[in-house]
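User: structure tokens for Phenylacetate-coenzyme A ligase, please.
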Amino acid sequence: MKYWQPKYETMNPEELKRLQLKRLQNSAKLVYDNVPFYRQKFKEAGVTPDDIKTLEDVRKLPFTRKTDLRDNYPFGLFAAKKEDIVRIHASSGTSGKPTVVGYTAKDIETWSDLIARSLTMIGLSKGDVIQNSMNYGLFTGGLGFHYGVERMGAMIVPAATGNTARQLEMMIDFGVTAVHCTPSYAFYLAETAEELDLIDKLSLKAAIFGGEPWSENTRKQLEKRLNLKAYDCYGLSEMFGPGVGFECQEQNGLHIWSDNFLVEVLDENGEQVSEGEKGELVLTSLSKEGFCNIRYRTGDMTKLLESECDCGRTTTRISRLLGRADDMLIVRGINVFPSQIQDVISRIPQVGEHFQLILDRNKHMLDELTIEVELEENAFTGDLKDLKAVQNHVQHELKSVLNIRTNVELLEKGSIERTAGKAKRVIDRRPEI
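Assistant: Done. Predicted tokens:
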């Protein structure tokens, strides 16, 4: 078993708790002394850094939300002086101002080590060639991941996004053994490689997927089609970026690097859930200097798992993401997550993985949910009865999971736009009331 930083990856649980407490106290003091927003929030909560005596005392601290980052745009939440910030990253800002985060030189080193740990954990090493097919620029999945590969000493191919045929050509010519991309883009790569009859020419042994939730069925399909092992990479710019959590070779839950992040999984009342129960992931930075986030409500839904893992690491473990609290759609009073729909569709062989949800409101002011899916080429017999049977089957499977009736439209393969980034799953055309 190989480790990048065995001291932290396999730390005795009691020793790890002592380290976490020390770092939590340092983080609380850092933001209290340097960030006016946090000083005010601490005062409103009636707490000071001196009140943090145990790890459980994290619950005394106030939550931070994405809106707080936007309200303090661009540098209001930075805990380091501007001259000590060596890099910034930002979210896309699709709903208002982007969220901007800053990194000191030490932050970049820490982040690079987290990626190197993660890649070592899935069996990659200096001899590998890793293609980064994520967007470079302000998005953390580009440069953040890039620096981690270099830290490990492997060869990085900074392919970025787009030009799928060229991406495949590079994979073949450069002997690429691992690729980092969104699962949506991996399907596009697989589709294109099959069309060009290139699958057998690829040397891929691992794929690292991030940027959007994906199901176990997606894993099985892509592993089979691309002849590799697929691993989940969890990250968010508000903490660092990719490398906050990662699957090991057991492929059974995400290891969160507990020396850098304190994990809470909370129910709707803000109470810690029991092991195996679903809740919202809340993270606290334990080592970040430039931008230190306290009790950040990620909006990501997950479950706490037993910390013991056959890989030997002693970190906190969570399930793969179960969707996002803010991705939830309310359709006729029923909570619907796109990840539920993805899971159903991925189990039906007659349709492909690409789908879109279209929400309308009919003349009776009732919500209508239409799900567009692509028909697999081998599923079309030319008989309209067979098409109707597939449509009815998809509708039946969706209703059994969602508990609402949906309209299903079968589209020709390739009809739904492919993207190298996050797939646009939802088109909400309902008028605001």
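User: Anything notable?

Assistant: The first strand starts at residue 87 and ends at 90.
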